[in-house]
From TrEMBL:
Residues 19-218 form the IRG-type G domain. The keyword Nucleotide-binding applies. Belongs to the TRAFAC class dynamin-like GTPase superfamily. IRG family. This is IRG-type G domain-containing protein. InterPro entries: G_IRG_dom, Immunity-related_GTPase-like, IRG, P-loop_NTPase. PANTHER family: INTERFERON-INDUCIBLE GTPASE (PTHR32341), INTERFERON-INDUCIBLE GTPASE 5 (PTHR32341:SF10). Keywords: GTP-binding, Hydrolase, Nucleotide-binding. One of its GO terms (molecular function) is hydrolase activity. It comes from the Eukaryota. The keyword Disulfide bond does not apply.
């Protein structure tokens, strides 16, 4: 349990401000934390105020990103990825000062890991609201289509829509089952997992567009629930 001095130091480090709602996006290296923060703030990755993204882990210190929409007094934090040489799993929660945030988004890509479980367990101890989010839904669905024989050189090939629908349903079912099983094994309560594509999320936030509505899985629900969380009294 951190001391009052440690809590004060952690709040100073992240420039915690009364009257703002502070979201930490945490998880293993390479899960797409920077891309998620950019998408939910409605910014392309090349924007001058965007969080830095890359194939390898690019975040070595906590990045602080106020929401560009003045109607939302939110601050988003890009937390260095756990599981790297710089950030051992067992030090992750306390070393990053995750105990001072108002909400923690636990983001994963391929597998829901023990690191994610550790973050959720500690958040539960500190009564910090959490959201479990799986990123890159579009990539995973496409990969399942490839495994089922889809050829991307022929986007108009017969049965494409049916293959996409089948792959989408499998991705959703497998993700829910994986998270449910891991939470049960860790003796944590069942919790919803949000499956998103950053490209779809960016289109919704930036362009206010549902042009690719067939691609939407949980992007709209994630936005709504995060807004509700930030507006609810604590």
């Amino acid at each position: 349990i951190p001391t009052l001095d440690e809590i004060t130091a952690a709040k100073t480090k992240v420039q915690y401000e009364q009257g703002r709602f502070h979201f930490a996006v945490a998880g293993v290296a390479g899960s797409g934390k920077s891309s998620l923060i950019n998408a939910i703030r409605g910014l392309e990755s090349r924007h001058e105020d965007a969080a830095k993204t890359g194939v390898v882990e690019t975040t070595v210190t906590i990045g602080r990103y106020p929401d560009p929409n003045s109607d939302f007094p939110f601050v988003w934090y890009d937390v260095p990825g756990a599981g790297t040489l710089h950030q051992p799993d067992w030090l992750y929660f306390n070393a990053q000062g995750l105990f001072v945030f108002d909400c923690v988004v636990v983001l994963f890509d391929n597998r829901f890991t023990q690191t994610d479980i550790a973050i959720l367990t500690n958040c539960r101890r500190f009564q910090i609201p959490t959201y479990i989010v799986r990123s890159k839904a579009d990539v995973h669905i496409r990969n399942i289509m490839y495994e089922n024989g889809y050829d991307s050189d022929f986007d108009e090939m017969p049965g494409r829509e049916s293959q996409y629908s089948t792959a989408r349903q499998k991705f959703i079912a497998d993700t829910r089952e994986n998270v449910k099983r891991n939470l049960k094994e860790a003796e944590l309560p069942d919790q919803r997992v949000y499956m998103i594509s950053n490209r779809t999320l960016l289109s919704i936030v930036k362009d206010r567009s549902l042009q690719f509505s067939y691609r939407i899985i949980d992007e709209l629900d994630l936005i709504k629930d995060i807004l509700d969380e930030a507006c609810s009294p604590r």
